[in-house]
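Give me the fold.
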Amino acid sequence: MRDLRGEVHERMSAMRRWTMPALAVTLGLVWVTGAAAIQIDGDTADWGGVAAMEMPADVAAGAQTPFGVVERLWVAHDEQFLYFRLRFGQPRPFADETQAAWQTNYWANMRYIVLDVDGDAKPDYYTNQITRPDGGLNHAYVVRYTDDGPKTYLWYEGHPDWSDGPQGHYSPDGREIEIRVPRAPLSMAGSVIGVRVQMSIRDGIEGPNEWTNDRYPSPDTWFLYDLPAGGAVASASSAGPPMATMIAAVAPPQIDGALDDAAWQEARVLGDFVLNRGNAPAPAQTRALIAWDDRNLYLGVRADEPDMAGLHTEAVEAESRRVWRDDLIEVFVDFHNDGRTFVHLGITAAGALAGQFGVVRGGSVATIDIEPDAEVAWRHGEDHWIVEAAISWANMGVRPVPGEVWGLNVCR
């Protein structure tokens, strides 16, 4: 679904639950309400009593450069600002003793706080803390993601519309950083925001001297913060991933959007979709059918929709990047079941199609666009919409073998 204040985006995991871009799970909450204003000056003494979030050890261990390691995140807020504090595994690489070498190999080192403010588990804003050769260490600004790409939104302490704007400051030893973001211009929808840390570094001293991106808690998950509640959100269940036995189709379904073929009567049904953030049941439910044969993976989805007039379907095939902004069904296929390589397909409620091939490396995900080999049909009812697809195994470069376990996520 599209609206309902951004809270109705859904996830269903089948066969094996695994993490991919645009998905999110609830990891924890460390919000402190009513905090006194924190001074962004590099002195962290005024952070007393603020709860801290430890970074996942496996993500830190997989960082592509030692300067990309993050150890801890602190979060606080007051009526005017969001406050973030980070501690790194090593001091900033452009400290006095390394400054000359760093300037020779690299012009900037960026530490981001990425924010999801509307509940769709996709980035809406990020704040960039950057050092510039001509301006010192403590430049911060806020960028807004739009359909046409990132757009610089608020400048460090100097934006004409926001005199009390974003700020950032390193601690004297270069091991920590404080960042402040104004709340008002973020247009937050709902009470919960998602927070992710991203380290974008080109390390010409100890690393590969190429751009790296390490993300915490992971490339596809968020820390969640509830402003009015001021308390912890319970962690998602640690139970193992759900499993589903996929039944081969005796005869392939006709791809016409009807979902009335014999193949669907025997297909595995995936239901009980949950919200993308928090694992609560989705207010409007979705029912996905999965089948396969030696040529294709077959997908049939019926999505309940109480506001069909509000359905967002602007993408066309010639503008595949807009597919991801529409009401759509997303399919993630981990064909090696290792969480490292995947195919990601998006099918809008009007049948527009886009795809990506992705590789996970440490805390980073690299994707390239592909032209999916798939046949798609769609239909709209009074209170629901349907997509049906035959997705060729050629997209994965491999066919399943009976007895294998693959990873699959179906998302709305």
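Confidence is low (pLDDT under 50) at residues 1-35, 156-162, 231-240.
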